[in-house]
Amino acid sequence: MKKLLLLIVLFFSVTLFSLTQPAFAGDAASGAKVFTANCAACHQGGKNVVNAAKTLQKADLEKNSMNSIEAIVTQVTKGKNAMPAFAGRISTDDIENVAAYVLAQSEGGWK
């Protein structure tokens, strides 16, 4: 009986953990809406009106070590230099979605 109970608990534990989404998954389609509402004023088309050397183009993201979901989430959440912090202004999910959108757009050349 104990072995059966242990197997059932183990089965449900494995199933539960396999169904959870990985951290920083992000939804690029939702991120596009959030980006348009909050980021496009400074970053329209992947550019940067404040600092032309720090665009959202793939090469610049790579050069500035910003070419990962985690790095973009940190930058958007905490801000840096002229970039304001968006923690408390938009949700964590929205920040992750924006990060996914930025990476997807940078891969596609911001078309």
TrEMBL record:
InterPro entries: Cyt_c-like_dom, Cyt_c-like_dom_sf, Cyt_C6, Cyt_C_IC
Residues annotated as binding heme c: 39, 42-43, 83
Domain spans labelled Cytochrome c: 26-106
Residues making up the signal peptide according to the UniProt record: 1-25
Top-level division of the source organism's lineage: Bacteria
Chief location bin: other
Location in or out of the cell: Cellular thylakoid lumen
Protein's recorded name: Cytochrome c6
Taxonomic lineage from the root: Bacteria, Bacillati, Cyanobacteriota, Cyanophyceae, Oscillatoriophycideae
